[in-house]
UniProtKB/TrEMBL annotation:
Annotated ranges, domain NADPH-dependent FMN reductase-like: 2-141
Name of the molecule in the record: FMN reductase
Gene Ontology molecular function terms on file: oxidoreductase activity
Keyword annotations: Flavoprotein, FMN, Oxidoreductase
Pfam family, one: FMN_red
Species this protein is from: Enterococcus saccharolyticus subsp. saccharolyticus ATCC 43076
Protease keyword on record: no
InterPro entries: Flavoprotein-like_sf, FMN_Rdtase-like_dom, NAD(P)H-dep_FMN_reductase
Origin superkingdom: Bacteria
Record PANTHER family: FMN REDUCTASE (NADPH) (PTHR43408)
Length: 189
């Protein structure tokens, strides 16, 4: 079964960024992709801040990431860059943790002014971690994800369409990397 890890750099579960996480999980579920979510703010703080790569919890998550076919990275955009919370986790990943993985980043910011933050701040780090299959990132303005007391989060249709387009490419790239059964021809005499 295809597995994808979602790394979330939000500072709380109530962050609107989790609306994007929930939506992408639903789409990936429709593609029959198994997902696991790493909420970085819930990882051991001391281990993250001291970059303790020997911490058993961090090692466990890193092993799950290694077993994934693809990775989605979610971050709020603060002061023109991705979150420091996300950075603490990226710093404890093995040097080429994203090699042979399809990667797609999504960011949520307060205005269009930080539209290029993902391309200039986050994508170089993801490439340094070994990904060669980096899809074009999706930047979303926080007004396009509303909090709803009944349904949790409501993502605008425009954003859903943009995410759907990228997730279709994401899925197709993952599937194309899967080993195919080799057809064997036998000589009939």
């Amino acid at each position: 079964m295809t597995k994808v890890t979602l790394i979330v750099g939000a500072n709380s579960m109530s962050s609107r960024l989790n609306g994007l996480v929930e939506y992408t999980q639903k789409v990936l579920f429709d593609y029959k992709i198994q997902t696991q979510v790493i909420q970085v703010h819930m990882l051991p703080h001391q281990a993250l801040l001291t970059a303790d790569v020997m911490d058993s919890t961090l090692q466990s998550y890193n092993e799950q990431l290694a077993a994934s076919d693809g990775v989605l990275v979610f971050t709020p955009i603060f002061k023109g860059s991705y979150s420091g919370i996300l950075k603490t986790y990226l710093d404890v990943l093995p040097q080429k943790a994203l090699a042979d993985k399809v990667v797609y980043a999504l960011g949520l910011g307060g205005s269009q002014h930080h539209l290029l933050a993902l391309q200039y701040a986050l994508e170089p780090v993801l490439k340094e971690l070994g990904t060669e299959e980096l899809l074009q990132s999706t930047y979303v303005v926080q007004d396009q994800v509303a909090k709803d007391d009944i349904n949790g989060f409501v993502v605008s249709d425009v954003v859903k369409q943009r995410i759907n387009n990228q997730l279709t490419q994401f899925y197709n790239r993952i599937v194309s990397k899967q080993p195919k059964e080799e057809t064997r021809w036998e000589k009939i005499v």
